[in-house]
Amino acid sequence: MLVLSQYVERSYALRLLDSDGGAGVGYLLKERVSAVADFTTAIERVAAGGTVVDPEVIHRLLRLRQDPLQRLSPREREVLALIAEGRTNASLAAHPFISEAAVDKHIGNIFNKLDLPVDTDGHRRVLAVLAFLRA
């Protein structure tokens, strides 16, 4: 399977590379596929069971892996910044831009995206703030 995409979609790229052990897959950016010979070579490589990944895709995947805060949406980063100020969920929900249900959703997403599982040895809220402060 060879994916041609206009953007680097992290979740799609990771899922594709993880499928079937990554054999016979490729992820190329449309804008960078201009040479017919290079494109044909990529198709042949994938058809033979190889893997082809655009260098920009690799660069962005590695950058995201190095900085887990890059996984957060702008709203999640904003919520995490308010948590780092010591605000409670009720205080966050008092802001006009967010409901209490949305606060819970954002915090859950933050924990997931920062790889802070429920069974962690530490307090996930504190660990999330520490990740934020390290950035």
Automatic annotation (TrEMBL):
Top-rank taxon: Bacteria
Keyword set, alphabetical order: DNA-binding, Transcription, Transcription regulation
Any one Pfam family match given in the protein's UniProt record, by short name: GerE
InterPro entries per UniProt: Sig_transdc_resp-reg_C-effctor (IPR016032), Tscrpt_reg_LuxR_C (IPR000792), WalR-like (IPR039420)
Gene Ontology MF terms: DNA binding
Gene Ontology BP term (one): regulation of DNA-templated transcription
DNA-binding listed as a keyword: yes
HTH luxR-type domain location: 65-135
Gene3D superfamilies given in the database record: 3.40.50.2300
Protein name per its UniProtKB record: HTH luxR-type domain-containing protein
Species whose genome carries this gene: Streptomyces minutiscleroticus
